[in-house]
Each structure stands twice: as structure tokens, then as C-alpha cells.
Amino acid sequence: MIITNFAKLSVFIFLLIFSLTGISYGSSALEIMTKVDARYTGDSAISDWRMILIDKKNRKRIREIEIFSKEYKDVDKSISFFKSPGDVKGTSYMSYNWESTSKEDDSWLYLPALQKVNRIASTDRSGSFMGSDFTYSDIDGFELEDFNYKLVKENDVVDGKDCWVIESTPKNKKVISKTGYLKSIQWVRKDIYFVIKNRILVKKGKKVKLFAAKDIQKIDGVWTAKILQMITTKNKKLVHKSIFQLKNVKYNTNVEDSIFETEVMQRGL
Amino acid sequence: MVFNYKLRKTYTFFYILIFVLYSSISVSQEDNFDLDSEDFDLLEDTSFDQLELELANTDNLALEVSSEISGLEKNEEMENLNSLDSFSGNIIQKFTYGLNSPSINFSRNKSALERIETIFNFNYKGEYSPQLNYKIGSNLLFSWGKWKNNKFQTDENSSTFKIKDFYLDYYPSDLIWLRLGNQIIARGQLDNLSITDTINPRDLSVPGQGELSEFRQHVPAILLNFPISDIKIELALVGEAGGNLLSEKGDSFDPTIPFVQNLVNIGGNPYTVNYLNPSNELEFFASINYSFNGGDISLVFSDENLNQRSLKNIVSKSLSSQLDFGFDRVQMVGLNGNLARGDFLLKYEAANITGASFLKMNPADLPGSKKNQNVLGFGFDYSGVNNLTLAYETNLRSILNHTNDLIVSKSSIGHALQARWTGINDTININANLNRFEGEKSTIASLVTSYKPRDGLTLSARYVQYDAVETTDTLYPYKKQDVIMLASEYSF
Questions:
Q1: Tell me, what's the pLDDT at B9?
Q2: Cβ–Cβ of A258/B174 closer than 8 Å?
Q3: Is B218 part of the contact surface with chain A (CB cutoff 8 Å)?
Q4: Cβ neighbour number for residue A215 with a 10 Å cutoff
Q5: Are A83 and A95 in contact (CB under 8 A)?
């Protein structure tokens, strides 16, 4: 099952979402992650994000993104439009994340300089999403069954909240190729089943990435992190970090089916 | 021998580059992979202490650079945030230095500064109503001088103004899209050896010295896009599209040079070039597009003027001869598509083209012979290596009912190879290209690096090398036009 799209980045990323009931301390890691995967996250969403890219010299680059997403029976669709700065303005990215594991996800990128929509290779998802420390896989989400899970710690406190600590490892090389992940350790908040912290060993350059979710609020009935941070480290030193800051979100709003078309990427909003 | 040496040199250059790129990525320093390390705790804690401060500072910074963000800060309604009206553009400063000494037939006949240019691009996108949007784009190129009479003359400066995107978008419904005006309609799958991407003529005045995005020429057109079930139909009617832009007389790719140097010997000298208007200014394009899980496919049809002009007539005058170049009216039936599989994106194009004329062995024997042709293209992008994408394209052109009096052979093949590397969070890009012309031994090799030190600012350097062996090769008269280009681009 796909844990889906960028519009719900705050609630999906790295299997962030949980439902509260039915899990005891003795639950297996897979049961916990299944709950994460199964959590209701709204049928559709429109959101505005600010993406802040910060290098180790603290120099910042800022992007403004608007995202539309919608869940269908067999596919989750999302489309993102970059609104600033000037050199990326008009760029758009669209993905169809299929529920069926037999189907590879579809994604397209529109670059205004070329005025052409290009399909992206199916497993070309471990690359940086528009220069950020998040990958396309991070944005599109992962499939629950692609990983093995192990509960490594039943209790750990992060930001004052009790968490499970779960280790995830890819089941095969194809998953590694697709996600770029070699191993990760996630801290899952027990009260709302939300992954608020994640440490990821990535294949590229054998770096470690540190994910964190902050300012978690219930918006329109959906638990949502308003700040997401990903730090890339090398030899335990900061190399680069990216912050996604949620500026606005509306869940279960009217998102037309016709917006998820390549022509819309081309003509813009 | 010369050919082998040159080709070997070019390919060796390319392979070394790929090796260096791959090595730099795959040979990485060993890290400590203990994910429980307290060092990470410290880094996370420190980072979170800074986070609020970062966001506060960023709010201020963003407010300075984007008026749209101020809307976000004020928590205005979502509809207001989606306001389409926006202004954007860039300013590009370019320096081009010629590395070799071309022949005396060119304005620059020794290694020297070729040109200095400043380019201004402005775009305004507006919304008249939810159903009616518009875009106005223009381009101003200012040339700071020209090489002439053995020196760079700044008094030879000039400016050229062009209207680029200038169109209305009309949406009678969510599913129907009509674009009316000056526009680019980029289609097809192959980037370098495209077969079906023929709507927009290209600027070939300095081949290899820019990106594809700079080469496509806008055309006045009506574009209609609508679905029928899961199939999308696209119709385009184009008027006064013109042909590919060629270099001016004396410039580094002056198209008359082969005639002046008698590489194409048609008798009589000197020559002037005259471009004829097409007999039919209207062109029609249609495509039927279908997307499925893992791929896209399009059937394309066109009735158009071939963008590349051909020699139509020679008019002998008392002191010179006039070469008349005109358009062939061609009809194309083709298809293009892609398949995404794992790390590969496979791309293909094929077309049957009727109506194109081909020069004969004696180029003065005009008009050329009209022949039907089949063109088949294939390519792939492989992105299985860290941050590196390798791309290859090839096309095969086969002339039907070929006769021995044609200057071109019955079948010809072209190749394009590309390696693209992106690193340090998209701040550095390296792009290596090798393009071998169809049916001949002309090659263009280029290496481009770009660096983004901050938002909106890009610094780039480009090296372009031209090779040819036979006198009949297209690039033979221009094989000493290798250049180094430096550019800065500020986007807003």
C-alpha cells in the first residue's frame, strides 16, 4: 500500500501517521507500521509550503510550492507547482502512486525553460527533490510491504512524547534502488501514531539523514506536522538541511480530477 | 587517419569525463553508520534550537523577495494565494571566446573574443478571468560589439528585440484548453535527434552553444487540446512559422561559406543568399495522445513546411549569383512514446515523411529530387547511478526509391550521447554532450558546468568543440570554431 503524496507530506512522510487505538506495548513493529499506513489522512488537500534549503555555511534558498492531492480507490494523485523564486517558477511535478504493487508509480516533471513535460524513470526517485534533502521517494511516500520492521525500543521520549523506536530495512535491492534507503530508525509517537523523528542511512554517499516533524496539530481532523526538517550529515557533521514549512492547508476540499493532467503542468495554474 | 584521431580524441574525452564523474560519486568516504550515536542527538537538538530562529529569519527574507508570500503571512483566503498575475524574467551576460583561427572568410579569423552579449527576458502572466489567462514575454538581445577588421569593435553594437510568448489561454471547460498566439509547442521524446518535434523552427546560428530551451523559435499558432475518453487530442494550426534561423554573413556559422570555399561547387562566384517565402504559410499538426501506467504514446500527423530550407534555384546575375533557398512542403505520419522501466526511461519516435527534396550529386542540377523517407529513432535515459543520468539517442533515416544521383546515401544514422551530473543539492550541474550528425562525420562535443551560489543566480562555463573530416561534412568549414563561453544569469 502506498503511503502517499506530497500534499500530505506533513502526515505521510516516512510513515508518519497512526491511529490511536488498538496497539499495546506488545504490538509488533509491523502492526504499528500497518496502523501508520492505514490512518485516515483526508480524501483530498490543497496546501501551500515554503521549502527552505540551508547549506553548512547557513546560506538559504527559499522555494514556495502549492500542492494539490487526491486519493482515489486505486491511486493517489498529486501535483505540485513552484511559485518562486524566479529560476524555478513554473516548474511542476506530478505523480500517480498506484495501490497495486504490480504497478510502478508514474511521475512527470515540467520545466518551463523547455516548455515540455517529461516522464521520470520509475525508480529515479532517490534523487533530490528540487535541490532539497528530501528525495522524490520521500515526497511520494513508500510502500509498507517494501520494508522489514523491528521494534528496537518500546519506550523513548522525544519532545516530551512517549515513542516506539522501530528499525526499517528494505526487503531487496530493488527497494534500495527505488528509495535510496539502506536502513532507518523511526520514533513513533504513541498517542497519535506519528513518526516524529527518523534517522536514515542512505545509499548515496553512505550519508545519514535526520528527519524531524515539529509543530504537530490536528487540522480538519487530520494530524499534521507544520514543520518538517531533513538534515543530511556526513561523518556526523551537517552537510545540508531542508525545512518544509506548511503555510496553509485545506483538507477534503474540492480538488477537480482534471487538475492531474500533464496539460495542466504545462499551462500552469 | 585524421578522422580516426579526431574521433578517438573526442570519445576519449567523453569517456574520461564519465569515469571522473562516476568515480567522484561512487568512491565515497567511509562514514560511521551507528544511527544511535549521541552525535546525532546533539546535531538534532542544536538544529531544533535554531529552527525557530531560522524560520523567523526566513520569513523576513521571503517577504523581501516575494510579494506572494506576504499573502501567505497574512493568512488570506486560499483563492487569493492562487492569484496568477506574476512577473518574471532573467538577465544573462555572455562572453564567447573563439579558440582557433578560422579561415579568412569569417569575420573572426584568429583566436579572439568572438562576442559579448547581454540578454534580457521578461515575462508577465496574468489572469483576466478564471477562464481566460494571458502571457506576454519578450527578449532583448544587446550585442556589445563584433569582431571585424582584426579587432573587436565595440562600435558595432546592436540590439534585437523579439516577442516570445504572447498568447491567450482560454478554458471553456475544465477539459478543453485553447491557446492562441505566439508560442512554443514542444513535443516528441528525443531531445537531440527529435523526429516529430517539428512545430517550432530552431535557431541554428550557433549550433551546440546553448540549451535546447534557447533554440526553439516561437510560432504564431492556435493550439486546441481536448479529451475523448482517455485519449487526448491536440490540434495546432500555425501561420508564418518560418524556417530554422541561420548565421549571418561573416559570422562563425555563415551558411554561404561552403559555397564561397567551393566545398559545394555550383559554379559562379561570388554568391548572395535569398530566402524565399513558402507558397503556403499555414501548417497543420495533430496528435492523439494516450498515457498508461509506465508510459505515454502519441500518434502525430502534420502538413507543414520543412524547417530546414533547401536550395531551390540559382539566379545568375552580371556580378554575382543568387542562391534561392526555399521550403519543402512535407506531410508526416508518425508516432512517439516512452516506457519507464526501473532506472531506464526508454524513448522512441518513428515517422514517414513525404515531400522533402534532396540535392543531386551536381548541386547545380535543380530542383532536387523529391523522395519519401522513413525515420526511426530510439533513446534511453539511465539514472541508476548516484546523481548521474546517462542518455543515448540514435536515429536512422532511410530514403525510399533512392537513386544514385543523390548526394545523400540511401540510409544514414546519427547518434547523441549525454551525461548529466547534479550535485550539492542542485547547486552544481555538469553536462557532457556528444552529437554526431546524421550520415556524416561531423561531431559537436560540449562540456557545460553551472553553479548556483544563491537563489536566482547561475554562473556557467561551456566548452564546445567541432570536428569534421570529409569536405562534404556539414561542419567541415566550421571545424575551427571551437569556443569557450562564460555566462551569468540572474533570474527574478
A1: 56
A2: yes
A3: no
A4: 15
A5: no
Which uninterrupted H or E stretch holds B455?
none
Q: Does B168 touch chain A (CB under 8 A)?
A: no
Q: Does domain B84-491 have CATH number 3.40.50.10610?
A: no
Find chain B residues with C-beta within 8 A of A183's C-beta.
33, 35
- Please report, as a single letter, which amino acid is at residue A259: I
Confidence of residue B266 (pLDDT cuts 50, 70, 90): low
Nearest residue in chain A measured CA to CA from B454: A61
Tell me, yes or no, if A212 comes closer than 8 A to chain B by beta carbon.
Answer: yes
A84 touches chain B (CB under 8 A): yes
Confidence of residue B61 (pLDDT cuts 50, 70, 90): low
Q: What pLDDT is attached to residue A163?
A: 93
* B66 contacts A85? CB cut-off 8 A: yes
CA distance B404 to chain A (A): 40
Helix boundaries (H) for A27-135: 29-38
Q: How does pLDDT run across B26-50, given as a tens digit for each residue?
A: 444 444 567 777 777 777 776 666 6
Please state the domain extents for chain B.
Answer: 84-491
Query: Which residue of chain B has the CA closest to A134?
Result: B425
Residue A100 CB neighbours (<10 A): 11
A229 touches chain B (CB under 8 A): yes
B79 touches chain A (CB under 8 A): no
Nearest chain A residue (CA) to B218? A115
Partner residue opposite A54 with nearest CB, options B54, B133, B345: B54
DSSP string, B116-175: EEEEEEEEEEEEEETTEEEEEEEEEEEE--EEETTEEEGGG-EEEEEEEEEEEEE-SSSS
- Per this entry, what is the length of chain A? 269
Question: Is 3.30.70.3180 the CATH number for A6-256?
Answer: no
Nearest CA in chain A to B294: A106
Mean pLDDT of chain B: 85
Residue ranges in chain A assigned as alpha helix (H): 9-12, 29-38, 136-140, 173-179, 262-267
**Residues of chain B numbered 266-285 and touching chain A (CB < 8 Å):** none
Write out pLDDT tens, residues A231-240.
999 888 888 9
- Picking from A44, A39, A84, A53, the residue whose alpha carbon sits closest to that of residue A66 is A84
pLDDT digit string (tens) for B347-360? 999 999 999 999 88
Look at residue A235 in the predicted model and tell me its pLDDT: 85
Nearest to B81 among A48, A207, A262 (CB): A48
Q: Is B61 near chain A, with CB under 8 Å? A: yes
Query: What does the DSSP 8-state code read for residue B230?
Result: T
pLDDT in tens, A52-106: 999 888 888 999 999 999 999 999 999 999 998 888 889 999 999 898 878 888 9
The closest of B3, B92, B474 to B253, measured between CA atoms, is B474
> Which three three-digit cell numbers place residue B111?
583566436
A267 touches chain B (CB under 8 A): yes
Each residue's pLDDT tens digit, B189-217:
998 888 999 999 999 999 999 887 788 99
The predicted structure's pLDDT at residue A125: 66
